[in-house]
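User: I'm putting together notes for a lab meeting next week and I want to include a structural view of one of the chains we've been expressing. I don't have a solved structure, so I'd like a prediction I can at least talk through. The sequence is below, exactly as it appears in our construct file.
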Amino acid sequence: MSIRLFLLLILGLVFLSNCQRDSSTITPSENAKLLGNWRLTKSVGGLGGWTVTPQETSILRFTSAGTYARLIAGVTRETGRYNYTPIANARPNEKQATITLSKIVFYNSSGQQSSTSNQPVNLVVLDHTDSELTVYEDQVADGYVDYYTRAN
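Assistant: Thanks for the context. Below is the predicted structure for the 152-residue chain, given as structure tokens.
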């Protein structure tokens, strides 16, 4: 009888040890680290592994209302909605979270609306601290990894 009880206890511990946080749950502190303005400092990648430094100031802005905007040289070039989903038990230098952009509106260099897209875009977050954000678009083969620093 005691062996069955012992095995049941072990089975219960194994079951409980496999529990993990739901990756779709965002804690306020995780989302708060994303809010604000992020300045693009460089993009690295492509087929040749090039490093590209922006010629004009490029800002990626996330708000607490769940909206985002990309600004180039102070002109809004893209707006939409975003959803930040952290990855549970992520290892360093691996996918930490996904930022899904949706209901995207594009603007020309004069700031006038030029097109829209209902196709969501996923930005894979490789690094995210209070002062740095590193992302890439997961739908783009041989794409660029974008490096941002906080611009607030």
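A couple of points you could mention at the meeting. Residues 13-26 have pLDDT under 50 and may be disordered. The chain has two helices and ten strands.

User: Perfect, that's what I needed.
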